Amino acid sequence: MQIVLEVSECFNPNLVEALGRLVETVERFGRKSRHGDFAQTELPLASLTAKIEAEAVGSVLASLDVDAPVVRVAGRRYRRLGVEPKTYRTLAGEVTVERHVYRAADVRNGPLLDPIAVRAGMVGGCWLPGAAKAMAHGLAMVTSREAAHSAAQVGRLPYSRSSFERVGHLVGELYVARNLDIEEELALGFEVPRGATSVSVSLDRAAVPMEEIAANGEDVTRAF
User: Which domain holds residue 137?
Assistant: First the structure.
């Protein structure tokens, strides 16, 4: 019995092709007995499903594109220049999307504006938020080399050690730019356990910024 999957003609052809390749590979593996190291069967299937995931993300990203003569971002006007391909980096790997690019109307050779990157909240203009968050987390746990090696072992985030370092620094820069707001939100959201009367903190080889804030006429020391 054959199953026919109908998709819209405007559907990403690369995604359809990736689906077809996965089906063909499953059929080929299923027709012959495979013995020995079964990882040699798992790896190709994992690679094909990762390609499907990346192309699916690319299809959704394409829907975020903007095609207008002029757009306004943060009060600044940008004029449309044309269409250019851009490679974005997802949890599953790279995907290339055709998108419109813009340039600020008040400059001659300024940087390009990518509406997809802006609307999706890309890190560094090409790293999807989920991928950047996962890479920064890995870098916070171990070295960049170990993080890249671990990612390769589980078939996710297929990027180099230098990419892990670069993304980690980009995420860190974003945090530093908003660390005061973030710390304030964390402090406001923290609930002191009922019955708590004091807090003791022991630090070794660390410097903690201190700030004294006047509250109700009394000096209150706050540690960050």
Answer: 121-187
